[in-house]
Amino acid sequence: MANKLISQMGLPQSIANIFAARNILTAKDALSLTEFELMELLDVGLDDITSAVEHISEIACPPFRTALLLMEDHVQNAHLIGHLPTCLKGLDDALCGGIPSGALTELVGPAGIGKTQFCLKLALLAALPTSHGGLSGRVIYIDTESKFSSRRMMEIGENSFPKLFQMEGKAQEMAGNIIVLQPMSLSEFTESLQQIKLSLLQHQVKLLIIDSMAALISGDNERNSWAPRQNALGWHVSFLKSLAEFSQIPIVVTNQVRAQSDNRAFCYPFQAQISNDEHVKNPERLESHLVAALGINWAHAVTIRLVLEANSDQRFIKVAKSPNSPPLAFPFVVTPSGVSLQCDEGIEVMGPHVQTIHCQGISDLVLGERLWLKTNWDKAWSSFRKKRKRPHSHNSIQIPDKYVSWDPTRFEYPFSEEPDPIKRRERSNLMVWTSPIFKPAGAIVVVSMLLIYTLLVPLKCFEFLLFKRLCSFSHFPSSRDLLFLSSSLILLTKYLSSSSSLFLKRDKMAFQAAYSKKKGTGKPLPKRGQIKAKIFRDLFRSVLTIVSNAGENARRRKGGKGRSPSSVAPSPSSHTSYARSDA
Amino acid sequence: MEISSLPLSPSLRSKLLSAGYTNLCSLSSISPPELARALNISNHEAAGVLKVVLQRSRVDGAGESHAIINGARTAWDILRDEQTLTRITTSCEEVDTILGGGINCKEVTEIGGVPGIGKTQLGIQLAINVQIPVDYGGLGGKAIYIDTEGSFMVERVFQIAEACIQDTLDNFSLKHKDFQVCEEKMQPKAFLANIFYFRICSYTEQIAVINYLDKFIAEQQNVKLVVIDSVTFHFRQDFEDLALRTRVLSGMALKLMKLAKKFSLAVVLLNQVTTKFIDGSFQLTLALGDSWSHACTNRVILYWNGNERYAYIDKSPSLQSASASFSVTSKGIRSATSNSKRIKVM
Fold first, then answer.
1. Cβ–Cβ of B115/A305 closer than 8 Å?
2. How large is the C-alpha radius of gyration of chain A?
3. Does A234 touch chain B (CB under 8 A)?
4. Which domain of life is it from (chain B) (predicted)?
């Protein structure tokens, strides 16, 4: 009704034209604006606008029905619309005949309680021929968690309706009526929902099951803020509701549970005093408190909420929210023939406890019963999470053994199959060090070669210079030359210390370069070998200056006017050369 | 009085201004043809403009009549009116007491609470109770039920209607034993026939229905209650533009208020709750935001206190803020079974 065209509403032609000219085409456009806004926008007097809006409203408004008519409708078309019986007598009585058509029914409960079992049973019942109490229609089953098991469904069918399933071809016919969709993302789900709207009427669909809603919504926007989730959910809620209303079929949706944190104790501001006292009284109640996922907005939107819970080794199904039934709880068990009630007399639950979800002793139940499903990943995951949960895990010290292997072993699979570049590099290193050819002896050789290279090569060149110098003296080494040699040895130690500081400086430079590259403002990262070349250049320069200084000193001393050679040792020029390299 | 404050279309207004007519006095002694010529518009339009002007000047210059301001009433008159005013019982004595006898006609009452607290139950109960005939101390009116959530279950309505009729008859036969009961009125089917049910699927339809109600109530006559269950749902789902939402909502509230006054009927809006971050903790408040909270005359919050349902008057111009317990039974809303004296003044 909202998208009805204004041009087809029978307004006076002049007014209708004005609406069309201002691009107000549908009732939705017109009614989203107030009358004064419309007056300003359309440039028409207020009286005309008021009458036009009244007219549009009257046409856009859906027709009324009296409650009596609704009642008669329900009585007459009980076989057509009515309810989907769950074959659980107590629950059917409580819900006035089963899951109602045209409404949203939610199943909520902890993992592994039997939500999917319940859904499978419902799907089967809707596909069952009318002679056996079913609806003999098609079922659309949207399975977002990939938990649909047709084998299990057939098992439920064989156990609950043995006669029917022994008939030739019946099972195939029924299974053929259950259409399973497995959307992988929220957008895919949305798309398929829109497609479903068309096919619902054409193909005699009698039931729509979504298992589960929470998986998609929470999975898609887990890291995002609160708002987008609400928006996505809002659209789905109103779409599902209109779908149910429009096609008059029951829609069943499952929901997961979340643990409620303590600080989220919801109460009204005026209740603050009271609730605080309560918290003090029973703090343990809050700890094991589970609530349905998807928030309070969703909770308002569902028409019927059934809570499945486990309390002290017994499973219960509770009617937590329903416009026409009291809050009852029924004990149930999951048997080979699906969910079945242990007694049809419900226990009335007092107070808000009907909303709480307990999950006690469920793992014992699962083990005791030996479920048909080999691995229930849901349960496995939840128990794993429980195990992993440790108190104060966030401020415990990280243990390196977790990440570092002290005893590396050679990988056997081919090196070319390693896609991760970092691991590739690590492995290539590891391959060298762990290869059988490479022995500890080889390692010693390699290390000593490196040592020789770093220590001797600079010495050699120094020796060469020294030798040249010595040769230039025509006579035997005198005391003066010994002095020179000792001073040059001091210089050598000085050089060694300065070269080590140079190596440190190299690291610093590399770091600075990398850092500046990260920031994108500084110099580009020096290429391989450039730093080494720089070091050697500096070294060469400094040695040259030292040698020439020493030579000058010697010459001066040769000139006679005795000056102490120790003044030579801290040569200022060598410092300036370092300063230059710094720049 | 300025021309610019008249409800005229912008083009006419600008024509008037450009022709030199800036206030109402300048228009008071002019004939339609003259005005038409001056503004270069048709005679018909000019007559329309003068009509608007005359209306406005009559409102302004009403000082001569017996009231000081036209349309206003003295507090004494209002008090007399209020004493004769009828109220719709909630079927729960304690809640009636804190509400001053029931849901007030001519007022907009908002009822909110967490899911499953019994908002819809209370809505249905009121829709039934408003139909208790005058002979039995009721209003004998009709009810409009606007359902946006699809939670109106006819079976349940029938159940509540039956229980209500039974209780009324029991009470009455105790008091007046010789009274002849008019049987045909006291049938559940007759009760159901007087509930007009609208199923709303989008917010546009919601606005349309509220616009249409004016006409509908005039046609149907004797409608005494409008229930909207819930006012929130569609506005919460498909609105991105929050400013527009506020405008549309306030327009809607205004229309409902006007409706309540005009037909002297009670408007009951059911609202959902939302969580709000106040003082470092999450607390519950009614949905639709702060500007909406000004829209209703009375506001009642239903909440859980221990194992019992309580109603709390959050906002009301005339009533003391108090809370009282109630319970939802198979018969509908009733007094809490355990204790009769449970009213707590906050």
1. yes
2. 42
3. yes
4. Eukaryota
Supply B331's token pair: 């018969």
Residues B197 and A67 sit within 8 Å (Cβ to Cβ): yes
Q: Is the dihedral of CA A464, A469, A475, A478 positive or negative?
A: negative
Distance between CA A467 and CA A115 in Å, rounded? 93
Residues sharing a CB contact under 8 Å with residue A223, sequence separation 6 or more, in sequence order: none
The answer, for A56 touching chain B at a CB cutoff of 8 Å, is yes
Distances (CA, A) of A161 to A132, A133, A548, B198, B295: 9, 11, 109, 42, 57
Helix (H) or strand (E) holding A329: strand A328-335
DSSP A5: B
- Rounded to an integer, what distance in angstroms lies between the CA atom of residue B159 and that of residue A479? 127
Which pLDDT score is estimated for A399?
53
d(CA A235, CA A301): 12
> Which DSSP state fits B317?
S
Q: Do B151 and A303 touch (CB under 8 A)?
A: yes
pLDDT for the residue numbered B226: 93
Distances (CA, A) of A526 to A188, A514, A537: 50, 9, 16
pLDDT digits (tens, 9 = 90+) for B116-140: 888 999 999 999 999 888 878 788 8
Cβ neighbours for A177, distance < 8 A, ≥ 6 positions apart: A127, A137, A138, A139
| pLDDT tens readout for residues A185-225 | 888 888 888 888 878 877 788 888 988 787 777 654 444 44
Q: Is the pLDDT of residue A285 over 50?
A: no
What are the structure tokens assigned to B164, written together?
Answer: 């209500």
Name the closest residue on chain B to residue A96, using Cα atoms.
Answer: B155
The tokens describing A488, both together, are: 């040059």
Burial A409-421 (b: 16+ CB within 10 A, else e): eeeeeeeeebeee
The answer to whether B336 faces chain A, any CB pair under 8 Å, is no
* 3 state DSSP class of A448: helix
CA distances to A24, A214, A328, B41, B59 from A378, rounded to whole Å, are: 51, 14, 28, 77, 73
Non-local (6+) Cβ contacts of A395 within 8 A are none
The complex's ipTM? 0.75
Range 144-183 of B in CB contact (< 8 A) with A:
144-145, 149-159
Alpha-carbon distance A239 to nearest alpha carbon in chain B (angstroms): 9
% of chain A at pLDDT higher than 70? 64
User: Could you tell me which chain B residue has the CA closest to the CA of A26?
Assistant: B204
Structure tokens at A215: 């998986």
| A504-509 average pLDDT score | 61
- Could you write out the DSSP letters of every residue in B209-231? HHHHHHHHHHHH--EEEEEEETS
pTM over 0.95: no
Per-residue b or e along A118-149, where b marks 16 or more CB atoms closer than 10 Å to that residue's CB? bbbbbbbbbbbeeeeebbbbbbbbbbbbebbb
Cα torsion through B140, B141, B142, B144, rounded to 10: -130
**pLDDT tens-digit readout, A97-117:** 788 888 889 988 888 888 888
Report whether pLDDT(A491) > 90. Answer: no
Cα–Cα distance between B117 and B301 in angstroms, integer?
A: 10
Q: In whole angstroms, what is the distance from residue A95 CA to residue A279 CA?
A: 34
Question: Is B303 part of the contact surface with chain A (CB cutoff 8 Å)?
Answer: yes
Q: With beta carbons less than 8 A apart as the criterion, state whether A300 and B344 touch.
A: no
Residue A140 has pLDDT above 70, yes or no: yes
Structure tokens at B68: 């000081």
Per-residue pLDDT tens over the stretch A68-105: 888 887 777 665 556 787 778 888 888 877 888 888 89
CA distance A179 to A200: 12
Report the candidate in B113, B26, B149 with the shortest Cα–Cα distance to residue B310.
B113
